[in-house]
Predict the structure.
Amino acid sequence: MSRSSTVRTRPEHRTGPARFAGIAVAVAVAALAASCSNEPAPPAPPPPAISIGVVHDGSTTTVRIRSGRTIGDALDKAGVDAADGQELAAASKEPLGPNGNEPTYLIDSEPVSRAEVLEAPATIEVLDGEDTVEPTEVVRRQQTITGLPNALEYVQFAGQPGMEEATVGTKSGETVSAVPLDGATPAHRATGKVLALTFDDGPHPTYTPEVLDVLEAKEVPATFCTIGTMVEEHPDLAQRIVDEGHQLCNHTLDHVEGLEDEPRTTVVAQMDGGRDAIVDAVGEPPAFYRPPGGSLGPVIYEEAAAHDEAVLYWSIDPQDWQKPTADELVLDVISRLKPGGIILLHDGGGNREATVAALPRIIDEARKQGYTFTAPISGRPQVG
């Protein structure tokens, strides 16, 4: 049997379109495989950091922020909070409120806004809103009477106010300057035989009406130093006091003694509270302030003066709160009479039957000695 020969042929080398088609398919498969991969695309590089200088109130702060952030971002990072312009009071230059002038931001002396985007290093100049002073006007007014003591222990002749032309702030009312036109007559202590009756710690629903009845019958004026909480409970009595021609005096809201040693906030709250109660009851503020327990000090004078309240003290105190008899009260008061004396009695704060009983006798005995009764500050000729 003869062996047959096997002839191996060499694959022929193919070229042309078929070859390139295969390559395209391979590339497409590779691209598809890449698109189906779970690996994220590489992140874009962050914007470059740039250096920003912020100039405000004479000092410079340098911060670094990313390009593309705003001027506002740079100011916030620098901790710069520009102020709006304020309208200032004419004399004290205390702020009265915004005047509408907003801050200005400059780069290379050109105005820019907080929203402007920063792309390159820069220096921002920050200018606060410009302040302005309130307008003024010239008014003709009475001069303040001089000569009154810090606290009135005796009746004072009111003096006569002169006239002046004053330049004042139209909003604050502050005085910038004043030119006298007519001279004023200073106040001074009474030299005539006059007395002032004052009553503390009311109005009381029992004793205040009884005191008012005596005063009406005797045709005598008086000053009632009321406690704010009592006025709130009995506003009708406060109104009766005024309607019958008497004066009201602020005796604080709660009769806090030793007030000069309390924080100023307490002083203000007590004095304002007593005054507000009077205004709510009768529609007008009191002319006087009487310190509970005689508590005096700079803060007392300042707060009273700020509200045009003369500080009302006394020179004759029979201490009726210690419950003396009516006879003892009359004897004590009459033995201490002197021209201009201010008599301290009470229509509230406890049992005042003895005070009510003594009152008409005190009036009659004083009149026998030639005394008349007036307000603590009076322009009557008898005051002297």
